[in-house]
TrEMBL record:
This is Cyclin. It comes from the Eukaryota. The gene is LOC107059655. It comes from Solanum tuberosum. InterPro entries: Cyclin-like_sf (IPR036915), Cyclin_N (IPR006671). Pfam families: Cyclin_N. Residues 7-115 form the Cyclin N-terminal domain. Signal peptide: none annotated.
Amino acid sequence: MKKEVCSCLRARLIESLIQLAQDLQVSPIVKYSTLSLFADRFCPSLTGEGTKDAKSWLLRPLRKSNLQLFALVAIWISSKIHDSPSLSVKSFKSLADNTIKEQHFTTKNFLKVELVLM
C-alpha cells in the first residue's frame, strides 16, 4: 500500500518537474538530466529507510512543498552542468514563490537543498 502511494506521489512530482522545466524554458538535455537526477536517484531514496534517519528539516517530515523545492533544485543543478551561463537562483526562487503556495523558501533554502540533494 505504501509503495502505491509513493508511486502516485512520484508520478505527480515528475509531472510537476516537467511543467517547471517548461516554465523555465530549459533545454532538452537539462530536462533529461533533471529527470535522471530527481526520478532515478533522489526519489528512490525517499521510499527507503533513509528518510527516517534524515537530519535535514527538509526531509523530515516529508512535505509536498519540500519535494517541489527539491524538483526545482534538481533543475538548477542540471542547468549548472549543461547551460552556460546557468540560470540564476533568483529565477528559481521567483518561480518557487509563484508555484509553491504552502511554504515560503529563501535562497539559503535552495543552497541547503542543493547540499542534501548532492
